[in-house]
Amino acid sequence: MLGAAPVLIVPWVRFRGAHPYADAERSHAEQEMFLLSGGAAIQNLLLALSAQGLASCWISSTLFCQQESRAALGMSDEWFALGTVAVGPMPAGAASPRPRSTSPSTCGPSEPGPQRLGLDHPVHEVPGEDRGARRTGAGGPPATCRAATAITT
Predict the structure, then answer these.
(1) What is the span of the domain harbouring residue 69?
(2) How does pLDDT run across 127-143, given as a tens digit for each residue?
């Protein structure tokens, strides 16, 4: 599957922002929280790809070859690969996408675009991105987007 997909996305997480705790149990829980957040972000990616009419599959491949993945994509040792997402066109014979709802919903707007969450601005932030670097204009894509950029360009 990975060899046939026209686009591969390798999601990464780093633990640099984790809170330091004196006891091992809380430190481990903090690391697990980062991993779970990464998994939730990947699930959102899969849903967004599906909403765009693309097929995708999350495969655990890079979990078992961290050093090789870092070396192949030029990532430093602080990054931990969370598998690979294969993306491509829907296969022939795939089920037709469900039509978008036109009725009011309690789950969000029926029109595409940024959702408002009672804030004075639309929500556009990517979970886990280095917001400080983006605000200061450090240049380049957010660090969490490096692998996708490296693979798809």
Answers:
(1) 7-91+118-152
(2) 444 444 333 334 443 33
CATH of the domain at 19: 3.40.109.10
Residue 105 domain-assigned? no
3-state secondary structure the chain: CCCCCCEEECCEEECCCCCCCCCHHHHHHHHHHHHHHHHHHHHHHHHHHHHCCEEEEEECHHHHCHHHHHHHHCCCCCEEECCEEEEEECCCCCCCCCCCCCCCCCCCCCCCCCCCCCCCCCCCCCCCCCHHHHHCCCCCCCHHHHHHHHHHC
Digit-coded pLDDT (tens) for 65-95: 999 999 999 999 999 999 999 999 988 887 7
In a domain? residue 113: no
Is 132 a member of any domain?
yes
Q: Which pTM was predicted?
A: 0.61
Overall number of domains in the chain? 1
